[in-house]
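Re: the request from the purification team.
They wanted to know what the chain is likely to look like in 3D before they choose a buffer screen. I agreed to run a prediction and write the result into the notebook, where they can find it.
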Amino acid sequence: MDFLKLVFLYYSITVIYSAIKKREVFPYFCNYIPFFANLLTKTSRLIYLLLVIEMVFSYDVDKTNRALFDFYNATGITIDLLKSDFTKVSNTKYEFNKYCRCIRENPKGENACKKSELALLEKCKSTKETQMHICHAGLLDMVSPIIYDNEIIGYIIFGQMRADSSFTKLEKYIHSLGLDTQMMQYHYNKIPFYDSDKIQSVSNIADMLVKYILLENMLKPNIEKSVQGAINFIEENLEKKLTIKSISRQVNVSKTVLYNKFHSYFNCTISEYINQKRVEKSIEYLIKTDLSMEEISQKVGFSSASYYSKIFKRLKGTSPLKYKKVNSK
């Protein structure tokens, strides 16, 4: 179904549902309100899912595999790229260390591995920040989100790092799986040990890899031509007065259509998108120059320094001056 038709249908259903709930319908129809309200709720959810599906992401699998292999080759740590729904994108074929392999060959151990990984991914999803934990088998795993326009579009997951030199705490669990504890301790001790400094270094490299994945367009949404044109126009004219009317005229689509498309792609209004881009642009001036707040606000298109400070604090949680003080050191 055409994307715009889905948008129209979704919003039409929302309006009808609202009218039914308010009983703004013919009196004889009121007896059927619960049935139709339930039907419309389910239908609108389906349409919403279709709208989300319409925004497809493209993956450069070959380039991704090379980047992930370079990470593995340099660190010895297995790593994979996942979609936002936690399904695997990369087709890397690492050989698990012998310790993990023995656990995964055990049905109970394999199930515990999946639960542990899912819990870590869900935590990363809710916080939108890199997360780490010690898995059920005593190894350190980490997940970093890949964020595009403040939305998670994928994850890199890596780990199987030994962060504890002692095997004692794991003996009871290993025994519960019916595995030879002496043999498993031998395999455990063969895994390279990572102290806190090394773990932090691995995390830093992973963060750089996330930025590289985005920079090299290994993972990106397939944005419609009109939306991409609007994005380009906005970024090239941030310092100027931008209105939805001028932008829609530039890309030759109606204001309503452009508004709906932006909301579908980025879950925000065009004004919110512009403010976000202006704030991001202002950070460069904040950190690298000695320009005043008034000068910076003008350079990125805000009407005044006070309005700039208000939007900055809303998006970043702190004032421009405090941000400058912390990040200019």
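For the purification team: The longest helix spans residues 33-54.
Please add any questions underneath this entry.
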